[in-house]
Amino acid sequence: MSAHATRLVDVDWSAFDPWRIQAVQHRLMEHPLLQPDQLIELGKRLEIDGRVRTHSNEAVAGTPFNTAPRLHPNRKSAAETLQQIRDAKAWMSLLNVQSDPTYRTLVDEVLDELKVGVDRSDPGMCYRGGWIFVTSPNTVTPFHFDKEHNFILQIRGRKTLYVWDHRDTVAASEQARDRFHARHERDLLVWRDELRERAHVFHLEPGQGAYMPSTSPHMVENGSEPSITVSFTYYTDATRRDSLLHKAHDRMRSLGITPPPVGQNKGLDALVHGGWRFASNSAQLARHLAGRTIRPDSAPYAFADVY
Ligand SMILES: [Fe+2]
């Protein structure tokens, strides 16, 4: 068997750009940890610590992502929902599965492999995370973005994934990104149906997936069958730098200064990044000396209570 045939995820590395959306293929459909019985057991373990996010099928593309579980609750337990997913009318995400010792092996298996290719243009992979989405027919993942780079892979069922370029200021303003990085708030993201026309659209079937750079807005519509999807996520040196710049810009906006978009003025970015990193490191050191918990974004794995 050739080395190529044993790969879990196929990426066209010659075309890979860490800031460009790209289709990928994979062979994870038969992975033992991604089968329904195993996911029911994982759901039971994660639910104990509140590491399950769920809402009903009443959530739509424009539902505010952060509050969807509260606005449209799914009152069934994780086990009940996962066992009856065809009829549960529910969307469920098993969060930060790398916090489970068994599933950390899956996250490492996949990201160790991807790191070899990613490192060539985007070094410093850290803050590894895994997310498993088990969803009833015709459910929707509301329009949102995340901080991590993301390989999203379809395991069972079909989904339509809409993704917008991370520089698309029509889909998400620069201010919305600043605010999200600084405060984890997505309230400046506004869904409009006409956004569909400017999206990269992936009709995902088992074995297919996509790479989505940090803060690429996305929205997902499930097909008429239950679906299982998995995401493998991480930060790199570049995403951590980008995040720090957005945080600094958010602070500047609160002082009445409108900075140029991140990436537009490289000299200014370098200056702001140097200053803000020094301030941020000093603040972290002070918190550490005061005996408070610090959660550096350079940690090898994502923290289980941050999402
Ligand atoms: Fe997401």
UniProtKB/TrEMBL annotation:
Pfam family, one: Cupin_8
Classification via Gene3D superfamilies: Cupin
Domain of life: Bacteria
Domain called JmjC: residue spans: 96-251
PROSITE patterns per record: JMJC
Protein name in the entry: JmjC domain-containing protein
Species per Swiss-Prot/TrEMBL record: Dokdonella soli
Taxonomic placement: Bacteria, Pseudomonadati, Pseudomonadota, Gammaproteobacteria, Lysobacterales
